[in-house]
Write a structure and sequence with these properties.
It is built from five helices and no strands. 4% of the residues are buried. The protein is 90% helix and 0% strand. The chain is flat and about 60 Å long. The termini are far apart. Helix 1 runs antiparallel to helix 2 (38-74). By secondary structure, it is mainly alpha-helical. It has helices at 2-33, 38-74, 80-112, 114-150, 156-170.
Length: 171
């Protein structure tokens, strides 16, 4: 049982780190574009890291609660009071996470001031939009590629049209 809990926590840690990395990279890119004093940038980075730590810890606790609930629900007639208690604990963890996120956001806003905060939000949305567009473009290209590969390879018309479409698109 301890091995399972350890593996769940380890997996949760890896997922949180990858999510944190993406979010941190976006915020780091935004901060680089803003003309903020070095001390303010450092304080913001510390806030982001504190929030990431909180989210990792709460995420791990959430996974433990989920495992307890699933184990409880294996029984044909689970104790519904215990089920309710676990659900309440889970909601409490989600509340702590959201409050932490909101608190961090408000602290960042105060550190930056309204003008820089507005610029921060616009720039972050722009960067996220670019990333999302690149991801969607990559998915579309992969979908086109898989459709091309799945079409009948012996057909001359499918091979010729794919090549001519690509050439026409580049002109």
């Amino acid at each position: 049982m301890k091995k399972i809990i350890f593996l769940v926590l380890l997996a949760a840690g890896f997922m949180s780190v990858s999510q944190l990395s993406a979010q941190s990279l976006v915020e780091e890119a935004v901060l680089l574009r803003l003309d903020l004093p070095v001390a303010v940038k450092q304080q913001i980075k510390e806030l982001v890291m504190e929030q990431a730590q909180l989210e990792r810890e709460l995420g791990a606790d959430q996974k433990i609660l989920q495992a307890r609930l699933e184990r409880m629900l294996i029984n044909e007639d689970p104790d519904m009071n215990q089920v309710e208690n676990i659900l309440r604990e889970s909601l409490s963890l989600k509340l702590k996470e959201e409050m932490g996120r909101i608190t961090r956001t408000q602290e960042m806003r105060k550190l930056m001031g309204e003008e820089k905060w507005t610029l921060f939000l616009r720039t972050r949305a722009e960067i996220r939009s670019r990333i999302e567009n690149r991801i969607n473009d990559s998915r579309s290209a992969a979908d086109r590629s898989s459709r091309t590969e799945s079409s009948s390879p012996g057909s001359a018309s499918s091979g010729g049209s794919a090549g001519s479409t690509g050439t026409a698109g580049r002109r």
